[in-house]
Design brief:
single chain; alpha/beta; Rossmann fold; DHBP synthase; seven-stranded mixed sheet; 15 helices; 13 strands; EC 3.5.4.25; RibA-like_sf; GTP cyclohydrolase II activity; nucleotide-binding; GTP cyclohydrolase-2
């Protein structure tokens, strides 16, 4: 099938393919952390965990800047934030979330938007309501005018996304001695560049850590290979059939994990049937792989996917629901798949996908794609609107 590329009319699904490294480095050192790398990587992992716990983090760069997640912030975390802040706090949000909150269009090409937080909103419950559109909403007229976002806003929202939290952060410049006071309070300090570089750094450093033969109903000769980055806890899996590394053009499928579809048999999506059909297609060819990527909900995580489902039940489609939560149309990183394929020795391959943007994204990451093969699952009466949205707004090539 020719590799024609059709851009979706209403949304750019993937990040600009030019942003992906032109090739996966053999050393796995995509924009490595500066020395001491191990300690800084450890600090970043702890900062991700602290964000999930509602603990403030101090970002360092042009200035010290304290941030705290709106979704998980507690009264204690708010007090710690106030102790480090040297100016009035700003609420930092993704532009799409702010547009949904304010009820008016905003430029979506900004990294973030910011607005001052009135004293009556500076409380954990109120901040959660501002961040989460599935909760009872605060009237937009209570919100002041938007401000120019600080340069640290992009890293603040990036940290929230790494923690799989709603991308809304409380932020403020910190005092000159903030690093010393943060250390005394047991709070972490993380360089901005480490936060921004982490996704590609982790993706390019993935390595095989375990494998075993796992006969499957749809692929009796399968084996499962686990991948993990050094000092990182997220594993991605490859279901390998035959010897794709020795085949001329093996068939490859990228499948983002879907708890509701793959395990529970949800009718809201086509993920479960696609996974099983992909395994049968690869097994029929004799050599190939299905990469099972830990990128639930196109990279937003299971909790946020459930929130998006709640918004879809109120009338939004899957794209607008993600945007109302502050997420992009597609938050996945395809350098992860490119690194896994390199580690498996798979070079030139055929890609099993309905999404031409996925072909372009992998090619931008250095993959040699010989062709695209469709993977069509008919609608089931429940997911008809979802499939129609994938075709109309995500550019998927569906009948």
């Amino acid at each position: 099938m020719p590799l024609t590329r059709r851009r979706p009319p209403a949304a750019t699904v993937l990040a600009d393919p030019e942003e992906c490294p032109a090739a996966v480095p053999e050393t796995g050192g995509q924009r490595p952390f500066s020395e001491p790398a191990t300690l800084r990587l450890r600090a970043l992992h702890r900062a991700i965990a602290d964000s999930r716990r509602g603990v403030p983090v101090l970002l360092t760069g042009r200035q010290d800047f304290v941030i705290a997640p709106a979704e998980t912030l507690s009264a204690q975390g708010l007090a710690e934030f106030a102790a480090l802040a040297a100016a009035a706090p700003l609420l930092l949000m993704a532009p799409a979330r702010a547009a949904a909150l304010l009820g008016r269009p905003l430029r979506l090409d900004q990294a973030a938007v910011a607005f001052p937080v009135a004293s009556d909103l500076l409380a954990p419950a109120a901040l959660r309501r501002l961040a989460d559109p599935t909760l009872a909403q605060i009237l937009p007229e209570n919100l002041p005018e938007l401000r120019e976002p600080p340069i640290e806003a992009a890293a603040a929202l990036a940290l929230a996304k790494l923690a799989r939290l709603l991308p809304a952060m409380l932020g403020a410049p910190a005092g000159a001695d903030a690093a010393h006071r943060a250390a005394a309070m047991g709070l972490l300090t993380v360089p901005i560049e480490d936060v921004l570089a982490y996704p590609d750094t982790a993706a390019a450093s993935l390595r095989r850590v375990a494998e075993a033969r796992v006969p499957l109903a749809d692929a009796p000769d399968a084996r499962v290979v686990a991948f993990r980055a050094p000092d990182a806890g997220i594993e991605h899996l490859a279901i390998v059939i035959g010897r794709p590394e020795a085949a001329a053009m093996p068939l490859v499928r990228l499948h983002s994990e879907c708890f509701t579809g793959d395990l529970l048999g949800s009718l809201r999506c086509d993920c479960g049937p696609q996974l099983r059909l992909a395994l049968r297609r690869v097994a029929a060819g004799g050599d190939g792989a299905v990469l099972y990527l830990a990128q639930e909900g196109r990279g937003i995580g299971l909790v946020n996917k459930l929130r998006a489902y709640a918004l879809q039940d109120r009338g939004l489609d899957t794209l607008d629901a993600n945007r109302a939560l502050g997420w992009g149309a597609d938050e996945r990183r395809f350098l992860i798949a490119a690194t896994m394929l390199r580690e498996l020795g798979i070079q030139r391959f055929r890609l099993l996908t309905n999404n031409p943007d996925k072909v372009a994204a992998l090619a931008a990451c250095g993959c040699d794609i010989a062709g695209r093969e469709a993977l069509i699952i008919p609608p089931n009466g429940v997911n008809d609107r979802y499939l129609a949205t994938k075709a109309a707004r995500f550019g998927h090539l569906l009948p």
